[in-house]
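Subject: for your reference before the review

Hello V.,

The reviewers asked for a structural picture of the protein, and I figured it would be easier to keep everything in one thread rather than splitting it across files. Below is the amino acid sequence we used in the manuscript, unchanged from the supplementary table.
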Amino acid sequence: MTREPRTVEADATVADAARQMREGDIGDVVVTREGSVEGIVTDRDIVIRAVAEGRDPDSTPVGEVASKNVTSLAPEQSLDEAVSTMREQDIRRIPVVKDGRPVGILSLGDVAVEREPDSALADISTGSPDQ
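And here is what came back from the structure prediction:
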């Protein structure tokens, strides 16, 4: 799990979320409202739901393009539970939430590093972003 995930408030702009992704070298940002998880936005969401629809990234609130009703995990849940949830929900990233606040995010890459450290996905997930 990545601790202290990047977050952006729902009324921030799509461009703000994209900058968070660039600065963190990540493909997703947890969307919050007053600190509580409201959704998640990925680089793909930005492309499909904002750019491809002709929305202005500098004025479109990220909350309008984020996925809502996000499945989350509690910190005490096991990796097996997380994998099962990812499989059942067909999702690649899950915010880890405690008392409504994001404390981490678990990705398929994190699972691969833990479960199959010699796999191609684990290698890609731990590799340098410049590769």
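For the response letter, the relevant points are probably these. Helices lie at 14-24, 43-51, 79-89, 108-115, 120-126. The CA atoms of residues 19 and 42 lie 12 Å apart.

Happy to draft the paragraph if you're swamped.

O.
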